[in-house]
Amino acid sequence: MDMAHFQDGSDYCYSEYFEAPGTVNVGWLGNGMSFPRYPPSEELLSLIWQYTQFSVARARGVHYRDLCTSARCVEERDGLALLLGAAEMRVFGSEGVIYAAPNMLYHYVRVHHYQPPEAFVRALQEQPAPPDPFYFERLSALGLEWSEALVYTPSMIRPRLRPD
Ligand SMILES: [Zn+2]
């Protein structure tokens, strides 16, 4: 399944189950889409990684493979390897704005040098982030469930079925 692509700052509408008033899109990049690029700082990567470790709005399967050529997206940091592409993240901004991003965001920023909007980066820097309990309370208040992100293990590579 192809993932939808949305302009930064547009109203979030990818899944009606995960909509909340004031939710806007960030980082829904697609193949052939132009987007602002800038080499990321370690601070930015570290901030995004905090959110990447928790999945919000999980989908049934890995549904993202547009921008990248590899079959799966695994990102590793601080000894933790996560399988990305089947969930989203939420970042709370000021004045009631909620940012919805695919959890591929870390990959997009690290590898493709996607430059997220300034207001989003400010929200990362200034607002409570996971694992702060206040962050999870805000998710709960919106009726959003979360779980720990999928840890990647080599056994996730399914063996091919052998013919008899
Ligand atoms: Zn990629």
Distance between the amino and carboxyl termini: 31 Å
Please state roughly what percent of the residues sit in beta strands, choosing from under 5%, 5-15%, 15-25%, 25-35%, 35-45% or over 45%.
15-25%
Question: What is the tally of helical segments?
Answer: 4
- Provide the structure class: alpha+beta
Poorly predicted regions are: none
Total domains, how many?
1
Question: Can you put this structure into words, describing what you see?
Answer:
InterPro entries: DUF7919 (IPR057679). It holds the Pfam family DUF7919. Residues 5-124 form the DUF7919 domain. This protein has 164 residues and is α+β, with helices and mostly antiparallel strands. The protein has one domain (16-153). 21% of the residues lie in helices and 18% in strands. The chain has 4 helices and 7 strands. It has helices at 42-52, 105-110, 118-126, 133-141; strands at 23-25, 54-56, 73-77, 80-84, 88-92, 98-102, 146-148. The chain has a 3-stranded mixed β-sheet with strand order 1-6-5. Strands 2-7 form a two-stranded antiparallel sheet. Strands 3-4 form a two-stranded antiparallel ribbon. The site of zinc ion has 5 residues, from loops.
Write the layout of secondary structure elements.
Elements: E1 23-25, H1 42-52, E2 54-56, E3 73-77, E4 80-84, E5 88-92, E6 98-102, H2 105-110, H3 118-126, H4 133-141, E7 146-148
Parallel strand pairs: 1-6
Antiparallel strand pairs: 2-7, 3-4, 5-6
Organism: Lysobacter firmicutimachus
Pfam family, one: DUF7919
Protein name: DUF7919 domain-containing protein
